Amino acid sequence: MAEDLIISTGTKEEKYRDLLPQITGLLEGEDDLIANLANISGALKEQFNWLWVGFYLVKKDELVLGPFQGPVACTRIKKGRGVCGSSWARATSLIVADVAEFPGHIGCSSASRSEIVVPIIRNGEVVAVLDADSEFLDSYDLTDQQYLEEIVKLLKF
Ligand code: SME
Q1: How many whole angstroms from 27 Cα to the centroid of ligand 1?
Q2: What residue ranges do the domains of the chain occupy?
Q3: Which residues contact 25 (CB under 8 A, 6 or more apart)?
Q4: Is the CB of 106 under 6 A from ligand 1?
Q5: What are the C-alpha distances in Å from 92 to residues 21, 130, 140?
Q6: Which of 10, 38, 80, 130 has its CA 20 to 30 A from that of 44?
Q7: Is the pTM of this model over 0.85?
Q8: Could you tell me if the CB of 65 is within 6 A of ligand 1?
Q9: DSSP letter, residue 83
Q10: Fold entry, domain 12-153
Q11: How do residues 62-117 score in pLDDT, each as one tens digit?
């Protein structure tokens, strides 16, 4: 696999629809988790140019920073803390239109204005979260949630 990603210029929905088979292709025949998390982060960053996108992995009682694209980030987040820790604790996706309004939001980057976090659940347990941050307010909606949940389903943990 060495092709370039084809970047879509359509609507958000079209961007995801064009990206999904390409991510499926990137993951095909590769069972290394870190490699796959890294390529998903890269593909999402290239297509959407969000401020930050990447993964936190559940390790013992905290989330630990995994592969990502964007500015340097906090390395460890406790369960229930910030948007990522809340998504883990509630085992549900969270869309935050304005991070300033989210109690306990962890501002890894002061440029971040809105955020979506999608938990990755295997055998009933959250094993990681996908976090995307935007420098614009209200960047994420149910379309993002639906497709990002679809994308993380492709991962083998
Ligand atoms: N803002 C996140 C922390 C992770 S960074 O933004 C990459 C939160 O409140 O969970």
Answers
A1: 26
A2: 12-153
A3: 1
A4: yes
A5: 25, 11, 15
A6: 80
A7: yes
A8: no
A9: H
A10: Beta-Lactamase (3.30.450)
A11: 999 999 999 999 999 999 999 999 999 999 999 999 999 998 888 888 899 999 99
